[in-house]
Amino acid sequence: MTVDDGKIEELDIADTSKLDIRTKKQKSTERIHCSALCLGNFIFGWNDGSTGPLLPRIQETYHVGFTVVSLIFIFACVGIICGALVNVYLTDRLGFGRIIALGAALQVIAYALESSGSPFPVFVMAFAINGCGNGLQGAQANAFIASLKHNSEAKMGLLHAAYGAGALTAPLIATQFAQLPRWSFHYLVSVGIALCNVILLLVVFRFKTREECFSMFGQKATESGEDEQSSLKRILRAKAVHFLAFFVLAYVGVEVTIGGWIVTFMLNVRGGGPSAGYISSGFFGGLMLGRVLLLWVNKKLGERLAIYLYTLLCIGLEIVVWLAPSLIGGAVAVSFVGLFLGPMFPIAMIHAGRILPKWLLTGSIGWIAGFGSAGSAAVPFLTGAISSKHGIQSLQPLLIAMMGCMLILWYIVPSNSKRSD
After folding, report:
1. Residues 107 and 80: beta-carbon distance below 8 Å
2. What is the per-residue pLDDT for 219?
């Protein structure tokens, strides 16, 4: 079989277009940018990992029950949703560098309020401010990584492994502060980390737009589409966006509920002592490892099959935690639940980058993450409400039911690219 010269030239161009022919400086610049975004995700994990060990102490200090203390999840969710909506409005007006720096600054304010041991209403409001900062940073960081041309899957895994690292580290510190008279000083450590994040983002990105950042490491700017107002309309009309948002809602609900309530479950049901706070570290440590170690499994199985397999394994492990009357056995099972839950969020973000138009990606991921964050409020709050009536032992059946919902929601998420829509 023969091929004419024109076709040979066309094939050569197609093959070389996938090669990374950038200079070492450009590759190094991209790595620095991705590393700066990882610190922001580390703080997200730090924030979520801090709550579980401190939750019993917060109840004791403010004299509130399961339902009232769960308001911190509700207000955090409201903040994240507000951040996601504001992000869609601000993306074309302020640009990547300014928005992500604003989100980081809001975190500093929130942690400063929490560290002072302020009255409960102010303490709860700080979670809303923090959530808004998380929403702004999360939308920009995920869209930035999902839009990368080279090895975006691995970089997305590392971005969210940084979340797991923060959530692993926080309970180790928070468990110690929970036993001190001024437990709220844990948030002074958070202030220090958040300030480092602000400085790093300012130094690395210098208020540049995403397109300006991409040009620094040799990647062409993403395609621009219609104006911001019609982008919002397109986002709200896209079925794929809403299917992914509902899946992320269920996933985030499960993740935050385990991280927030598993310590209370182990204390009240399994008879754990003060060291039970470290079980939360085990869960988030598994989450971090899953987002790195299972990258090759994701590629081998494919995104859709990987989610089905991981969810079924998590359901089986939660049944073990529910029925096996062993503190150590339950702690080990919870760590493996974290391992298999870990890859799911990065997979969902990469999948969004494949099936959604590039010019809608930042706003869409902001909406998916923001709407999905409702799970971080709804499921933990529902757990607190049910526990106030039936006890914390209701945690495991609720988690298993939510994981079943995740299977159904992932089934209806589109698998084909819709970039031309």
Report:
1. no
2. 76
Q: Which residues contact 368 (CB under 8 A, 6 or more apart)?
A: 241, 244, 245, 248, 348, 352
pLDDT tens, 78-88?
888 888 778 87
pLDDT at position 136? 87
Average of per-residue pLDDT values in the chain? 82
Q: What is the CATH number of the domain that holds 157?
A: 1.20.1250.20
40-49 b/e with 16+ CB inside 10 Å = b? bbbbbbbbbb
Q: How far, in Å, CA of 351 to CA of 365, rounded? A: 11
Within a domain: residue 145?
yes
361 falls within a domain? yes
Residue 9 lies in a domain: no
Show Cβ contacts of residue 106 under 8 Å, excluding neighbours closer than 6 positions: 129, 130, 132, 133, 136
Token code pair at residue 46:
């730090």
Show the domain range for 62.
31-412
- Counting Cβ atoms within 10 Å, is residue 291 exposed (0-12), middle (13-18) or buried (19+)? buried
Closest CA to 136 of 236, 237, 44: 44
Q: In this structure, is residue 19 part of a structural domain?
A: no
To which residue do tokens 């004299």 refer? 63
Terminal Cα-to-Cα distance of the chain (whole angstroms): 38
CA distance 48 to 57: 16
Instruction: Provide the number of structural domains found in the chain.
Output: 1
Q: Is the dihedral of CA 273, 54, 136, 374 positive or negative?
A: positive
Segment 250-281, tens digit of pLDDT: 998 898 888 878 888 888 888 777 777 778 77
How far is Cα 43 from Cα 20, in angstroms, rounded to an integer?
31
Token look-up 């995920």 returns 142
Greater pLDDT, 6 or 28: 28
Please tell me the distance from the alpha carbon of residue 254 to that of residue 252, in angstroms, as a whole number: 5
